[in-house]
Specification:
The protein has 274 residues and is of the alpha+beta class. It has helices at 3-11, 16-21, 66-77, 139-147, 168-174, 191-195, 202-212, 220-227, 241-245, 252-265; strands at residues 34-42, 52-60, 96-99, 102-105, 120-123, 130-132, 135-136. It has a five-stranded mixed β-sheet, covered by helices on one side. A hairpin with a 2-residue loop joins β6 and β7. The protein is elongated. It starts with a helix and ends in a 9-residue tail after the last helix. The model is unreliable at 1-17 and 269-274 (pLDDT under 50).
Length: 274
């Protein structure tokens, strides 16, 4: 072994120089890294008539997230790859996508939790209009969200000009549904939503639940009227896809069943008093 070869090995342990000089040599990943294959469903409305699958080889650590791998593709291989992301910590809900056929947040899905020896398939969530690559039009989703009036409505003044008090038990009644981050993972996993664009969807019902069972709110009846529609809670077929897809662990199917029950029992049992 020559001195020059030793120097190259010292500064280039991944064999990058050899790979550049001889394309037939496949570059070795750096120590601790594993080369995984991501197969991404791409779509550019300006050039594509139909979506297409594109393969990418990416060097990753087991503790890397799918979002990290997508960043490497965008920054190092193909800057045209388009996807949404913001906080990268599972709070904003921006990067929901289908990973190996399941709705997940890319920022919360670790490489080690998948099988890195097999290709990882990534595509946009279903049921919403595809705009480009992994980006969908979220407006239909948010239109349903707005339609259920997801905000506190009270027509009486707080007692003695102070805040509206609520017991721990009353808060617990709807605590689970306050966790929603509007990522659309649940709604876009629902087969009813895929086939019926008018269905409110699980996320909208969950956010209605949050206020229907809030003891401080006085418009539960209005929301129940809205959801007692042919495209409301009664379109749910209880497949549990939504609960399995939720990255926050919300018991969505349970919440929908509680709204159904409240719709049947009203008006005497919907109102909650302190």
């Amino acid at each position: 072994m020559t001195l020059s070869t030793l120097n190259v090995a010292a500064v280039d342990p991944a064999g990058v120089t050899d790979a550049v000089m001889n394309p037939a040599i496949k570059r070795r990943p750096a120590e601790g890294f594993t080369t995984i294959t991501l197969i991404v469903r791409r779509f550019d409305p300006e050039v594509d008539s139909e979506p297409r699958w594109v393969d990418y080889d990416v060097d990753t650590l087991p503790t890397d997230r799918i979002l990290d791998a997508l960043h490497k593709i965008k920054w190092e291989q193909d800057g045209s790859l388009t996807f949404r992301r913001s906080c990268a910590h599972g709070v904003c809900g921006s990067d929901a996508m289908r990973i190996n056929g399941r709705n997940r947040l890319a920022c919360k899905t670790l490489i080690k939790d998948l099988d890195p020896t097999k290709p990882i398939y990534i595509e946009a969530i279903k049921g919403l209009p595809l705009e480009k690559d992994l980006v969908v039009d979220m407006e239909p989703f948010f239109a349903s969200f707005r339609a259920v009036q997801p905000f506190l409505q009270s027509h009486t003044a707080p007692p003695e000009g102070r805040e509206r008090l609520q017991s721990a038990a009353d808060r617990e009644r709807f605590d689970d549904t306050t966790k929603c981050i509007l990522c659309a993972a649940c709604t876009s996993s629902c087969p009813v939503f895929w086939t019926d664009g008018q269905y409110f969807g699980p996320a909208a019902i969950v956010n209605a639940h949050r206020f229907i069972f809030d003891s401080r709110d006085e418009e539960a009846e209005v929301r129940l009227d809205i959801l007692n529609d042919k495209e409301g809670v009664w379109r749910c077929r209880t497949t549990f896809n939504c609960s399995e897809a939720c990255p926050r662990g919300i018991q969505i199917t349970k919440a929908i069943s509680e709204v159904k029950a409240a719709t049947i029992r009203r008006p005497e049992k919907v109102k909650i008093t302190l």
